[in-house]
Amino acid sequence: MDEYGRITRRTWRRTVVIAVVGLIVGGVAGWLVGHDAPASPTVLATLGPAFALGGLAGGISIIVTSLGISMRMRARMQGLPASARRTVTQAIKTGTPIEPAGSELGWRAFDQARLMAAYHPLAFGQFLLLSLGIVGPQLSLLVREEVFSAWLSRITCSVLVVAAVVLTPLLVRSSRRARRYVLLASA
Prior knowledge:
The protein is an all-alpha fold. It is built from five helices and no strands. It has helices at residues 3-34, 39-77, 82-94, 104-139, 147-186. The longest helix has 40 residues, at 147-186. The protein starts with a helix and ends with a helix.
């Protein structure tokens, strides 16, 4: 297991603990505030703060690591001319290792692919957790009689769901390409 794999696994372990604690604390707080209401609003009043606190806490936990990895990704490409950056990007996308294998550009592409393989799953998890943190407070507003806040909450939730549906295959594909490049270039 390489350095980036260890960093990623440690980040996921830390994030799961933080998000679960946030879910529990938020759920308890939501239940304490909304336990007098009828059943449906009580469930939403309990889930809303739970999702908000768990999602935001987990997302912020991932931000710490993803910022470090993204700075490393930029540093690896710094100083390269635009044509060399395009070559590295195209090689990773197509899964074609740069020849000769031991060249400076080949090593940069290999390291960039390793960073991308670690970064993209973290970015995806961060997006989902932060989206959950945004959707959480909107849940109790979905069933309100006030038309404006109900529709605004529905639109917000819908936009985040559509964004998740669109971004999921893009990030998964990019992560797979980076992992495939690392396997081919290290062989």
